[in-house]
# Entry
Amino acid sequence: MTDLLTNPTSAGVRTEGPGTGIVDCDVHNTVPSDAALRPYLSARWLEHMDHVGPRTYSPYEAGYVYPKVSPAGGSRTDAWPPGGGLPGSDLDFMREQLLDRYGIDRAILNCLYRAAEQRNEGYGAALARAVNDWQVEHWLERDARLRASITVTFEAPELAAEEIRRAAAVHSGFVQVLLFPRTLAPLGKRRYWPIYDAAQECGLPVGIHFASTTGAPITSAGWPSFYIEDHTAMSVAFQAQVTSLIMDGVFDRFPELKVVLIEGGFAWVPPLMWRLDALYHRLRVEVPDLQRLPSEYLRDRVRITTQPIEEPERPADLLALIEEIGQHILMFSTDYPHWDFDHPQRAFQTKLPAEMRARIMRGNALDYYALGA
Amino acid sequence: MSSGTPAAGFGSIDCDVHNAVDDIAELFPYLPQRWSDYCVEHGVTSLAPAFYPGRAALSATPESRSSGRAPGADPELVRAQVLERGVDVAILNCLYAVQPIHNEDWAVAMAAALNDWQAQRWLAADPRYRASIVVPSQNPQRAAQEIERLAGHGGFVQVLLLANSQVPLGNRAHWPIYEAAAAAGLPVGVHPGVAGGNPPLPVGWPSTYLEEYAGAALAMQSQLTSLVCEGVFSRFPALKVVLLESGVTWLPSLMWRLDKNWKGLRREIPWVADRPSVVIRRHVRLSTAPFDGPLATEQARDHLPRFLDQLGSVDMLLYSGDHPHWHHRDPEQSLLQFLSPAERRQVLRDNGLATYPTILQGAAV
# Structure
């Protein structure tokens, strides 16, 4: 085990070990089936599960309105555990295929179980709580390298805030609150503020992770036809969310709040920041309470994970892009076990300076998350 | 420069100027009685687009507000503030909002009236004006008929669609519009604006106009994705699309993302035989205002050469002044000053001539 495990707690005692020591900021653990959550549900919600079941925005009981490129939510074809079960559901196989193979010191689990989309908010909250308890028992308690995000019903922010406070008290392995970019309203709106209040109070960053399910179309022109469009447009949804968080004053109202954008790309950052700064100059009368330039909020308060890594036509442009954004912004992620997995050694198609690489593969995440304890 | 040699002194095409309807009654002479009566009887006093709030600074420069009429409503004032300042040909993109009308028959009548009003009130007023055909996109077949009706009129050099459409513009339902545009040899311009009732952002309705306007660049990215992925350019190989007033610097990042996804997912869209960036460079042009480049001069000097390399060439850029809209910096400051004289000439003039092949034919209106 690495130094991280023997030198836990505060940031001050952390040593930047000499090993590869990767921090992977986006790994997916999969709830094998609803049956796995039963031990964590009350009789009231077990009855709901048995006689009503999931009711989301999707027209389908199972699967996605944009079928992904491969089964099990777009999983790598080699990620099915040999012992059976879904990709991401078997810790031993995850150790073999990811954690041990690439020398990953810390992996942050983002469980994508669809609790937040439940239109019955009580059922959604019960499922979220069950998912979190399941994560403690089956993941956090079983491997000291693992950390997890708290699943919450973000469309019911009061219930989400309650779960954030509960889960954070239950286990120190929860290092983040998990939201999706496809919300019913922009995340800066006041209705979502109880989530930020709780996250800030618990010292947890809010992570927003790629997800293609919602009640509203992913473009301002309605629903596109293809998964490739849905996937491509996700970066647009991320841009809209970060714009809303800035303009609605979330960063001013919650001065300690941290935000992580997960799996939404990052090449869009400079153009968006230039646009927002220019518009702020012309339209600032509409947002008089902002204390700083829009781009400054992003640089100071937002971190972005790397997968799917940007692939400029000239690979060296990646380096220029990272320098333009700032090397402290990016945090490495693989997205295991999904199809567009980024290999820790091969994802960057240009050579990064050693210090930049160390910051992205490890240092930035160590600075941003409480990963030691 | 395929369509003839420009006249001596011919220097620049401004491909995004906005003419406005000051009073809906101006359109009544061009409307069937049934619809002018409808407007009066039902108290329809204006279709000015909420996408450009009249009071917001961005919607109009101070000097364009000087007449007391709607900014952009006076051909003489636009002549003084655009044409007399070094612009030799100005393409008018009228944003009077007939596209979000739910009543299709009314929309068809209003679009035709608006175009006839443009022809008489603007194109006839100065030989340097050109206009885009406003179409009732509610029904693409009838939109195509409107294109066909005006295709012979040399003053109309483009078909205008709005970015916040009811369904994505690549969707097959829109193809009659592209078929008619391609047949008429006209590019299709996509401009920020509302034609459908969708939330203006993929995350719903924002609190501020600033977010909504910033979102125009996002809408454009989704529309470009749709146009490429649906195969519009495979089906209409001669078609050109001009993305208007929505920033330019985002294009490399979108091309990278789309190329990467195409590598992994192209089996879903087998008709897209080339990398999306190749398709985009071949068929898509962008207007330069707002440019959305770095604000600091030093940063701009560092970024712009790299950006132009990533773009592929300056062939894709068309000069626009975006009168009367008021951006943070004028386009000369944000882009043109960093170009070589040859590149500047391309952006100001040659690219426009190549994109709008009929633009000089209309000169004798």
